[in-house]
Amino acid sequence: xxxxxxxxxxxxxxxxxxxxxxxxxxxxxxxxxxxxxxxxxxxxxxxxxxxxxxxxxxxxxxxxxxxxxxxxxxxxxxxxxxxxxxxxxxxxxxxxxxxxxxxxxxxxxxxxxxxxxxxxxxxxxxxxxxxxxxxxxxxxxxxxxxxxxxxxxxxxxxxxxxxxxxxxxxxxxxxxxxxxxxxxxxxxxxxxxxxxxxxxxxxxxxxxxxxxxxxxxxxxxxxxxxxxxxxxxxxxxxxxxxxxxxxxxxxxxxxxxxxxxxxxxxxxxxxxxxxxxxx
Length: 279
Prior knowledge:
The chain has helices at residues 16-27, 43-53, 77-82, 102-112, 116-121, 132-143, 155-165, 182-186, 232-239, 248-263, 269-277; strands at residues 2-8, 31-37, 55-60, 74-75, 87-90, 96-99, 124-128, 148-152, 174-178, 189-194, 220-223, 243-245. It is of the alpha/beta class. It folds into two domains: 2-100 and 251-277, Rossmann fold; 104-246, NAD(P)-binding Rossmann-like Domain (Rossmann fold, 3-Layer(aba) Sandwich). Strand 8 (148-152), helix 7 and strand 9 (174-178) form a beta-alpha-beta unit. It is globular.
């Protein structure tokens, strides 16, 4: 039995169980994926308990992508560089290895959207937020040669992100900014990525983008939020003639990479896609 799951707080909104159960069925693997809502006071105990409970591994979602790291035995070089873990593998010797499949999942999805990555490489990326997901997205873009500007409401968070990632990217690729600089930076951005949870159900009327700031047709909006499928941020961008995408593609690809780590088998991507877009 491949026992896997998702650690977070909350996790009830997640579509990951449907996606991973579909993968197990399609591949003929005896496996189950369960939701693990873990209170902030219990993160360490929950992670350490994965061994005793017989888990093959788990995904990690907000707000614990950085919190879980001290409780792991090892980190992959990418997870170490990013400073965030979204996948834990319980190895045969019962040690816990932290991976980050968010960066690769984001890049795979971006590359799948015709012309988007080429357009992005000729401009700049603007990242909203400085948490674990923002670290993965910034790492992926900067390593691909895209100048990336990171905005956070707490400037010290953006500074910390840039300081952590700069040793792993070319010089001049990552620039931290205070949120107050958003209007001027938006004017030069090609890709705008929302790495905050603002706009997620049940607060779908909210948006991280100021109401008095317009989008342009050449903007490409990527909202990591996927519930609802079209966020207020996306709706405003589409109304202005911009291209806009939600985070479902990234969710699928990071999940497929995690599934492969747990099972050692190629992920049945089509089955995972069908499960996650089903009503």
